[in-house]
């Protein structure tokens, strides 16, 4: 037993050394005090561009952030009205979101070359919000209001905005994620018996993903670039359970941090291997990432173990992840004040080695 414990501890030390040899994780606060409270919601595929909303005084403004240029405020759809950026194209040069106008909310598309423009509403509709964008920025999905109901929409320059419809018995749907090529859309929609996660394609239209035994509702929040992996939450009388779904496996429960009851996935890497979001725990809600090797990992604990999280910060929600799963952006607090942040976990060490490291640590804990 002592030899086994010694080997486990030695393995852990070697893996720690390997992690540090490949480079240490980095933590950066997004923006400065003069930018006001920033809420980061999205990150480009290469992890270089972040988008969200913020502002020091007055209505919220959409922003685009890079390490080189810091905060760039986007134009408003209507002067002095709030604007929120929700998603970015792969290269970060196109952004979608929602801006308020004198006639209601409007989904927008912003480009580095052309600035901001409204995507309008459905024929006869009242409002719209852009929530996700394809890799090249040619497809935007979100939600729109029409004749007193809310419906998911799909927009391209050629087709304009079109409704994706509703599930049987329902009058509400919203699209929260889209595949890289814009052909697969995921979100949530109501039915006569509750809310369901859906997957939409041109061929299948809106498909109800169903429920696991005991669930009353389910929502899909994000999709991998190839459209094969969907993440979201299913709920029962105990709370919300995070899931990962594929057509081959169906629903896979992801669990929570230690002591937690609920977890909420927000985004997924390009190949579906890394999921980011938040989970409650015995210490409260924490920003976290998930892989099949590690389960949920508290970003606060991981960064502190590497000496990369400055004192006073608490990371509460991971909102988005880069294509390779190594750059994560989210929200939290610094000495109680709301902040946004970006974390880089150097490749190739972290995600694959962390699974083995976690096993080594668990084994080491049994040796006392």
Short description:
It contains three helices and 28 strands. It is mainly beta.
Descriptive account of the structure:
The chain is mainly beta. Helix content is 12%, strand content 48%. It has three helices and 28 strands. Helix 1 runs antiparallel to helix 3. The N and C termini lie close together (11 Å).
User: What integer is the average pLDDT?
Assistant: 90
From the spread of the alpha carbons, the general shape counts as: globular
Radius of gyration of CA atoms, rounded to a whole number: 21 Å
Secondary structural class: mainly beta
Helical fraction: 10-25%
Largest sheet: 4 strands, antiparallel
Stretches where pLDDT is under 50 for at least 5 consecutive residues are: 8-17, 348-353, 355-368
Number of helices: 3
What is the topology, as strand order, of the major beta sheet?
1-28-27-26
- Assess the beta-strand content as a share of residues: over 45%
Number of β-strand runs: 28
Beginning-to-end CA distance, first to last residue = 11 Å
